[in-house]
Amino acid sequence: MAVNLLNLENVTVAHGTRLLMDAVSLGVSEGDRIGVVGRNGGGKTTLLKTLVKAEDPHSGRVTHAGGLRIGLLTQDVRIDPALTAHEAILGETAEHTWAGDARVREVLDGLGLHTMGLDSPVGTMSGGERRRVALAALLVQEWDLLVLDEPTNHLDVEGVAWLAAHLKQRSPSQAHLVVTHDRWFLDEVNNTTWEVHDGVVDAYEGGYSAYVLARAERDRMASASEQKRLQLVKKELAWLRRGPPARTSKPQFRIDAANALIADEPPARDDIALQRFSAARLGKTVYELHDVSLSFGDKVLLDHVDWNLGPGDRIGVVGVNGAGKSTVLKMLVGQQEPDEGRVVVGQTVKPAYLSQEVAELDPTLRVLEAIEQVAKVVDLGGGKTIGASSLADRFGFTGNAQWTRVGDLSGGERRRLQILRLLMGEPNVILLDEPTNDLDIDTLNALEDLLDGWPGTLIVVSHDRYFLERVTTVTASLMGDGSVAALPGGVEEYLTRRRKAAPAASGTSGAKSKGGGAAAGDSRAAKKELSRVEREIAKLDKEEQKLHGELAEQASDYAAAAALDDRLRAVQTQKAELEDTWLELSDALG
């Protein structure tokens, strides 16, 4: 039986007149992997602070097991600026001591701290770099319970994937509690989801996918006033079921109930219709890069690149931190000139650019006034329009919140307002740089729902792979060598290429020569092997579809569903290995 680590008993916490927790009772045990979701300002961070005894409740009791070791990452990272990264992470430990510890090396490499330099003073670092240092300082130590508040902030796609893998490989007895809006991460690392709302904490078994279904069922039984929110949840559920099958392979997802709930739900968007309408608004040309080179300091970001972004394209841009993603967006909107080559912009292009910085607004303005400064009504295309007040309502500014002064908004609320103002300008090209920063999941759902029917060209830079998969159809990567690569396999293909590039970069020239000499002789064998692998993948596809059907039929029989789920996971693992082999053979054949 799992040992209980900590408990809240009838805990009540209020901030001013806002009741954030009302007689909440819950606990965390060994092996719990808990994701915490909820609206910005709903009490997620307060819940964490109360759990770790960083904030005292107004009533109730918080108890910890004797000798409990808790590692805490807060959103507000505070490290002595006089320390170096090495001192902040490893203290006075000598390099020859920690260099022999594989666990320490893995953390430093996974968070990219070797690249940044361990001798760098904390005081000279950006906020994102300081946050990575603080995260590394936690992960190199042993904890019974890790409590992480937005750990994926300032990590690139590769860093988020590494952190997920790292948390999953921790000892089964170790627990974690994670607040994040990254839905892929929530699904990947958690077996329980807590939703903080209206002073209560509701617990759901499973990760984000299971939580979406359970919340949809809860909302379906609620009053008619909840219908608007239910439609968004149903649409999100429809996306999850139509996405990668692995998302629906967990027994607790209850596939038959999910299918019944979304039986009449249309696809998230009609890409072909949107592209036709977008072409009518934009013409044939949006952005064309001709032999473009771009540098930032001594670093080459683009090296004689040709790239065409057309009407209706929905492009997700990924790459390691420092690869130049933000700089490329600035170049497209004319804030940065290329070193060489030409950037051709279509005559009808009306861009809207969301930078990572929150735009300064008159703090005395009300929220609705700030939106109506741009426009009072926005055309969504296809004869649909929406007023400023209605759009604000969809983005969480409901009722009296629309009359809140801008100066009283939180960072997340200002981010929401910034996106609202951008959309009210009726652009036909939208460029978003890390749009998910500081947004809660409900707001992300509303943004995705709005973008589903938006006819125009969309270019998104984000580390949130769920958001990228949800709103874009094409993935492009800045590979760090000055090239731009189209990735049919999306973020997963990008991570696979990065993993392969790491050993290749450290390989010897002798190994390359040996490979080159054998390449011609092995070409025929490689093609034969490629055909064999394709046949095997096709067989596994059919078996996977068959298992999904059997799982749906056996959803009410837990034992049978669990056995089928094990078989399905084995098939998916074998298929993933074969797909990696297929990519390797394809790359070898050029």
Give a structural overview.
It is a single chain. This protein has 590 residues and is an alpha/beta fold. Helix content is 44%, strand content 21%. The chain has a six-stranded mixed sheet with strand order 5-6-7-3-8-9, with helices on both faces. A six-stranded mixed sheet has the order 14-17-18-12-19-20, sandwiched between helices. Strands 2-1-4 form a three-stranded antiparallel sheet, with helices on one face. The protein is globular, with a radius of gyration of 25 Å. The termini are far apart. The model is unreliable at 245-254, 273-280 and 505-521 (pLDDT under 50).
Strand and helix map with partners:
Layout: E1 4-15, E2 18-29, E3 33-37, H1 44-51, E4 59-64, E5 70-73, H2 85-90, H3 95-98, H4 102-110, H5 113-116, H6 127-139, E6 145-149, H7 157-168, E7 175-179, H8 183-189, E8 192-197, E9 200-205, H9 208-220, H10 227-242, H11 255-261, H12 271-282, E10 287-296, E11 299-309, E12 314-318, H13 325-332, E13 340-345, E14 351-354, H14 367-372, E15 377-381, E16 384-387, H15 388-394, H16 411-424, E17 429-433, H17 441-452, E18 457-461, H18 465-471, E19 474-478, E20 484-487, H19 490-506, H20 509-553, H21 558-589
Parallel strand pairs: 3-7, 3-8, 5-6, 6-7, 12-18, 12-19, 14-17, 17-18
Antiparallel strand pairs: 1-2, 1-4, 8-9, 10-11, 10-13, 15-16, 19-20
Helix pairs in contact: 9-10, 20-21
